[in-house]
Amino acid sequence: MHLFSRQVLIALFSYVAKAVVLAVLVAGLAGSASALFLFSLDWATQTREANRWLIWGLPVAGFCVGWLYLKFGQHVEAGNNLLIDEIHDPKKVVPLRMAPFVLGGTVISHLFGASVGREGTAVQMGGALADQLTHFFKLTHTDRRMVLMAGISAGFASVFGTPLAGAVFALEVLAIGRLRLDALLPCVIAAVVADQVGLLWGVQHTPYEVGLVPQVTPWLLAAMLVAGAVFGLAGKVFADGTHALSGVMKKHIAYAPLRPFLGGVVIAAVVMWGSFDRYIGLGIPVMVEAFGHPLPPTDFLGKMVFTIASLGSGFKGGEVTPLFYIGATLGNALAPLLDVPFALLAAVGFVAVFAGAANTPIASTLMAMELFGAEIGVFAALACVMSYVCSGHAGIYRAQRVAHRKTDAPSQPS
């Protein structure tokens, strides 16, 4: 008896061929867009650091970007949430203008000193560019979901240099408690290829030195659970704070461009008069420091406040890199209290706060292993899962749905 009938083999070959072709096309688009974005981001950061006075232009920059979105970009302003909604309930192709709008808006945010990240930009560019294939190939709703998820995977993987985490992120972020494994093949292919495309363009990712990872001991395992709970609470505070400020701004300031203008005034004044430059932009140098020596224990709080102020008032960019900063510096602060090496807890915090805020513990654990080595996997997994459990059912992505509750505890209003 044949294991596969001819019809089954033809259908399987057709699916694999379609998935490979679409995923490679998506990867080429997203990987190239991420490379352009990362080079632009490097230029913006270097220019701002060499011309500190540019921070005074943050209010005007925020107003201009807000005005452009109001006039021409209202259909794409939802960003990552728009992509998630379209995967859940496909309605219409994501406008191509999302890519240049979020690219320009994020680069401007960094040029003038907002505290925002980069993942949102790469994911939105990847998703928007991928969805244009819907028109070209006249894709069905099912194939369109696959392409959008591949675009998210490719964008995430290429901007951080973590293909495994990128692939799983797109499967995990859509709904709490459920993985969309129907798109596993295209997401893995798109993530791996997009990462390679970025490297071919000359992208270089920041290395983090963890050093020798200690052997597993009962105390270290217990410390990871305790730290994971703290990381989860930090992720929840970040997500709730960002949503709350955004809601207050929208309620009391009807004219959208005025929100980032006012937010920019406050941020620029505090940074310039208080010398809080370490809390704006990506903050990668501070993250690198967190792996090497003790830092001021309030660094995580400073970054959280400036990022909530930036994103909550309407500046464009991602949440994930600021979450990395918050996690690494919070881990650095907790390390002596829990008698854990600085580098180890900084590395675990790096991914665990993100795991709680985005509700993506599996992708976060894989990211730790890709960035810091497989030996850290056990520690990262414990902290990421604990963070996920303790962060509640609301995260940084409002469109994320609850497929299965995390615990039997009653939910709290968010």
TrEMBL record:
<dbReference type="GO" id="GO:0016020">
    <property type="term" value="C:membrane"/>
</dbReference>
<keyword id="KW-0812">Transmembrane</keyword>
<keyword id="KW-0472">Membrane</keyword>
<dbReference type="InterPro" id="IPR001807">
    <property type="entry name" value="ClC"/>
</dbReference>
<feature type="transmembrane region" description="Helical">
    <location>
        <begin position="260"/>
        <end position="280"/>
    </location>
</feature>
<keyword id="KW-1133">Transmembrane helix</keyword>
<feature type="transmembrane region" description="Helical">
    <location>
        <begin position="183"/>
        <end position="204"/>
    </location>
</feature>
<protein>
    <submittedName>
        <fullName>Voltage-gated chloride channel protein</fullName>
    </submittedName>
</protein>
<feature type="transmembrane region" description="Helical">
    <location>
        <begin position="146"/>
        <end position="171"/>
    </location>
</feature>
<feature type="transmembrane region" description="Helical">
    <location>
        <begin position="53"/>
        <end position="70"/>
    </location>
</feature>
<feature type="transmembrane region" description="Helical">
    <location>
        <begin position="378"/>
        <end position="397"/>
    </location>
</feature>
<dbReference type="InterPro" id="IPR050368">
    <property type="entry name" value="ClC-type_chloride_channel"/>
</dbReference>
<feature type="transmembrane region" description="Helical">
    <location>
        <begin position="300"/>
        <end position="325"/>
    </location>
</feature>
<dbReference type="Pfam" id="PF00654">
    <property type="entry name" value="Voltage_CLC"/>
</dbReference>
<feature type="transmembrane region" description="Helical">
    <location>
        <begin position="216"/>
        <end position="239"/>
    </location>
</feature>
<feature type="transmembrane region" description="Helical">
    <location>
        <begin position="20"/>
        <end position="41"/>
    </location>
</feature>
<dbReference type="InterPro" id="IPR014743">
    <property type="entry name" value="Cl-channel_core"/>
</dbReference>
<feature type="transmembrane region" description="Helical">
    <location>
        <begin position="337"/>
        <end position="358"/>
    </location>
</feature>
<dbReference type="GO" id="GO:0015108">
    <property type="term" value="F:chloride transmembrane transporter activity"/>
</dbReference>
